[in-house]
Amino acid sequence: MKLSVIGCGYLGAVHATAMASLGHEVVGVDVDAARIEMLRAGRAPFFEPGLDQLLSETVQGGALTFSSEISEAAGAAAHFIAVGTPQRAEGDGADLSYVDGAIESLIPILRPGDLVIGKSTVPVGTANRLAESIRPTGAHLLWNPEFLREGFAIKDTLEPDRLVYGVANVGSAADDVALLDQIYRSVLAKGTPRIVTDYATAELVKVSANAFLATKISFINAMAEIAEVTGADVTQLADAIGFDARIGRRFLNAGIGFGGGCLPKDIRAFSARAEELGVGQAVQFLHEVDAINLRRRHRVAGLVIDAFDGDARGHHVALLGLAFKPDSDDTRDSPALDVARRLHEAGATVHAFDPAANETARRVAPDLRFANSVDEAVQRAELIVIATEWKQFRDLSPSELATQTPARTIVDARNCLDPATWRAAGWTYHGMGRP
Ligand code: UGA
Fold first, then answer.
1. Residue closest by Cα to atom 25 of ligand 1
2. pLDDT score, position 87
3. Which atom belonging to ligand 1 lies closest to the Cα atom of 251?
4. Using a 6 Å cutoff on CB, does residue 263 contact ligand 1?
5. 160 lines ligand 1 (CB under 6 A)
6. Domains along the sequence of the chain with CATH
7. In angstroms, what is the span from residue 258 Cα to ligand 1's centroid?
8. Is 262 among the residues known to form the active site?
């Protein structure tokens, strides 16, 4: 089937590649000409395990093309909207200008019966409004939120936990549902659950899933705060409550808190939308979730500054990890980068190293010093912070590291090291919510 994907950022580039790998003829469209050039050359514009290979295979095989001209999308049976919905420059709400722009640019090429499929994360009520604007073309709108995680993007697209189809009228959308079923035929053949619902539910499924995950992380980080004053161990607490299948152990890792291009802005946009709808109180707790999360960054910076007796000026700190999570080069709202900045502002010299995110971090924080390896970062360090739990850092040997650095203090902001091993090797170990 001929498909178009409008917006070739994280979501769009992955979706276009995955759809082409299923055998569809896909054109990806983006206004960023440099990005289109890279994609055409079969190179992913960001770090995502496995994407480069699948992208170059599908581009070389001819199934996947890219263009900065929307006219190239004409004739596709379905157009996926995969543009970003970042936080507005002013306020907490979502900036919908890219979604509105994508729909506006599509309208002249839409034909009766075409399907427009929204994948972007939008405030509830958006799909209804967009459906109205495309109605005169005779095309239909379906909202199909995306749940992929960075680092697992291909797998999450081809083997999702579930598919959600939001339609204007569940009783009369059989053709649209059948068309999307055909697109996802091999995904559905694996037994993936599929829920057909109204627009509002589909939009809310996405934001409530992210709000739930954010709440789970902030819950355990709140327990870490309690553990810090009582001498309890939050990692053991998480293991123990996690054995209860109703609670579950996943997303219960206390540490530096959540970041990235999704969870933080999605909970803020959700609160802002609920307030607009007059039900702000229903998600009032998300403000607390946000506040707990931001306190963890403050706590990590505080631990470091305390280690220098309250004054970090003139001290050297190695900060390992800048990405918001491992296996990513994304530093959007990254807690690791935030801590690096705070320490820099407190007067410390920060020697930062990330296996993938040095360049993305350098663009937004050029004042930091960037090292090309762990060895280089720790050379002059008096203290080391593990800010992102890359495998390379989790596997560090305390005795070996001690031969490369004068530092003997480690702040494990991700609780990813074994305190006993590090202490036995002569290190002063500080975790998050653990004694
Ligand atoms: C998140 C959701 O997990 C996806 O389902 C969703 O599709 C995506 O947002 C989106 O809306 O596009 P992602 O931003 O890739 O995916 O990252 P996560 O794996 O959810 O991690 C988010 C943050 O939480 C990271 O900073 C991570 O380090 C942190 N985290 C995660 C914790 O601090 N503790 C945990 O136990 C788990």
1. 258
2. 93
3. 36
4. yes
5. no
6. 2-192 (3.40.50.720), 207-290 (1.10.1040.10), 296-430 (3.40.50.720)
7. 7
8. yes
Ligand 1 center from residue 302 Cα (angstroms): 24
Does the Cβ of 216 fall within 6 Å of ligand 1? no
pLDDT block averages, 10 residues each, the chain of length 435: 97 98 98 96 94 97 97 97 95 96 97 97 97 97 97 96 96 95 97 98 98 98 98 98 98 98 96 97 98 98 98 98 96 98 97 97 95 98 98 98 98 98 98 96
Q: Is 130 in the pocket of ligand 1 (CB under 6 A)?
A: no
Give me the catalytic one of 103, 262, 322, 343.
262
Taking the CA of residue 150 as reference, the ligand 1 atom at the shortest distance is 15
Name the closest-CA residue to atom 11, ligand 1. 262
Query: Measured in angstroms, how far is the CA atom of residue 253 from the centroid of ligand 1?
Result: 11
Predicted local distance difference test score (pLDDT) of residue 57: 97
Any ligand 1 atom below 6 A from CB of 255: yes
pLDDT at 30: 97
d(CA 320, CA 394): 11
Of ligand 1's listed atoms, the one at least distance from the Cα of 263 is 9
pLDDT tens, position by position, 160-170: 999 999 999 99
Residue 388: predicted pLDDT? 98
* Atom of ligand 1 lying closest to residue 260 CA: 14
